[in-house]
Amino acid sequence: MVEIKWTSVRRGLIISLILWAILRDIAGDAGGIIGFFIATAYVGYNVGEGYKNGAIHGALVGVVGGVVGTLIILILYLLGFGALAKELWPVTSLLQALIAIIIYALIGAVGGTIGSIFNRTP
Predict the structure, then answer these.
(1) Domain boundaries, the chain
(2) Where are the transmembrane segments (predicted)?
């Protein structure tokens, strides 16, 4: 049984948001994904305790971040800020949001695994 370290997940969410925003302005959507990947690698490095633990924590950063992001975008749409919402995350349906969350979970799992590999390297 893997014990989830929510502090590391929260830190990963904050770091991924900051890196996503900065690198997205510099390099577009690819930069945002790279920033997210770096943040999940950091989470995997911090939690240590093997590849599985790093992958789970990285994927959690992706899933929780995706759900929170989806809720924020939904609120922006409901408040009448649809143009801003589309600029932040060009997802227009719940199915697209679900697919994006799955993709971010996979990217997070890979990033967390790589981070845990760097932690195990002597």
Answers:
(1) 6-118
(2) 12-39, 59-85, 97-118
Q: What would the two tokens of residue 115 be? A: 């981070």
pLDDT in tens, 68-120: 888 888 888 888 887 887 777 777 677 888 888 899 999 999 999 999 988 87
Chain position carrying tokens 């770096």: 38
pTM for this prediction:
0.84
Residues recorded for the chain? 122
Q: At what angle do helices 94-120 and 6-47 cross, to 10 degrees?
A: 50
H/E element holding 9?
Answer: helix 6-47
Angle between helices 51-78 and 94-120 (to 10 degrees): 150
